[in-house]
Every structure is written in C-alpha cells, then in structure tokens.
Amino acid sequence: RVVKMARPTKWNKALEVTAWGYVNGGWKDEGHTIPSVVGLCSVICRSRSIVYDWAKDENKSFSDILDVCNEQQHLTLLNGSLSNELNANISKLVLGKHGYHDKAEVDNKSTDGSMTPTRITRTVIDPAADES
Question: What is the pLDDT tens value at each position of the chain, 132 positions in all?
Fold first, then answer.
C-alpha cells in the first residue's frame, strides 16, 4: 500500500511576522504601489498556492493576513484613485476584484411618462369604396 505524504511546510513564526509586516505597511518599504498577495508571496519567497493553502489551515493566521492584505489593497486603490495618484484604468480593473463595476444602464422608460411613445393611428380611405 502506497501512502502519499505531503511535503513538509516551510511555514514558521518568523515568516508569519514578515507577512504581517508586509500587510501592515511594509509593502511601501518594498516599493510596491499597492499591497497584493503576489507582492506578499514575493517578500516571503513562497508561491500563491502555498499561501492560499496556509490560509485554509486554522493553526496559521494566513487567512487573516490575506484578508488584511485585500482590505489594505482596497483602501489604497480607493484613496489613490480619488486623489489621482494611481492610474484610473488600472485601479478600475483591480477594484473589480473588490466588487466595483463600471456599468451604465439605459432606462427606456420615464417615471413621469413624458417619454412614452406616441401611438400614431392612420385611417386609410379606399377611393374605390367612395364610388359606390
């Protein structure tokens, strides 16, 4: 019988402290424009799949770390976009991940009825019918 064993994790408390440092402002020290999971992975030298696996483990606080990273990203994008410090198109793209969508709705009906279509009635008179 073959027993599959997972590779040992390279998680340790020092790595977690580094991750918390990144999401709590260290991303600026790293020269990152916004905090991101990719940036975090770069700093702690781990892949996204590993970090997301760690986030599922209740014994590690990576779920909280990823939540704070996303919240910091959201706030940084909003503030940077509103102050014109960040590129609006890129901000709009990333803010889509946070539930924002650029959507235009066209309302073909007016609430006051002023745009209601006018019904045109035509009466056709058959000249042959008048001769009888």
Answer: 555 545 556 788 899 999 999 999 999 999 999 999 999 999 999 999 999 998 998 777 889 999 999 999 999 999 998 899 988 888 888 888 888 877 766 666 666 766 666 677 777 777 776 665
> At how many degrees (to 10) do helices 62-82 and 48-56 cross?
120
State the DSSP code for 26.
Answer: I
**What's the helix, strand, coil split of the chain in %, to 5?**
55, 0, 45
CA-to-CA distance for 111 and 8, rounded, in angstroms? 64
CB 50 within 8 A of CB 25: no
**Token pair recorded at residue 108:** 């073909």
